[in-house]
Amino acid sequence: MSQYYDDNFGHWNMDQGDRDEMIEFYHHVQRTNVEKVCEGCGCTVRIQPHYAFCNSCADAAESGWSC
User: Fold this and answer.
1) What DSSP designation does 17 have?
2) DSSP of 20-34
3) Given the DSSP bridges, would you call strands 3-6 and 10-13 parallel, antiparallel or unpaired?
4) Which of 39, 46, 38, 36 lies closest to 6, judged by CA?
5) Is pLDDT of 1 > 70?
6) From the CB of residue 26, how many other CB atoms can be counted at a distance below 10 Å?
7) Is the pTM value of this prediction over 0.85?
């Protein structure tokens, strides 16, 4: 099973759906990431330029918690 993690979307399972398309999208996301300080936890992460929170903080916020 091929799994990867990034600060945008969390865990990626490359074995589901169109694997080639998923890998291509994953690499696109990695190329376009920038290094930023997450506004939730204060950690330096690699996320999309328009994101303010890492995946962990976004998941926490969606669950009603704060970082």
Assistant:
1) S
2) HHHHHHHHHHHHH-E
3) antiparallel
4) 46
5) no
6) 16
7) no
Instruction: Using the structure block, give the residue that is written with the tokens 């506004």.
Output: 39
Looking up tokens 């992460």, which residue turns up? 45
| Distance separating alpha carbons of residues 19 and 12, to the nearest angstrom | 11
DSSP 50: T
Who has greater pLDDT, 31 or 5? 31
DSSP E strands, the chain = 3-6, 10-13, 34-37, 44-47
Q: pLDDT tens digit string along 10-57? A: 888 877 678 888 889 889 999 999 999 999 999 999 999 999 999 999
Residue ranges covered by each domain of the chain? 3-62
Residue corresponding to tokens 């995946």: 55
Q: Do you know the residue count of the chain?
A: 67
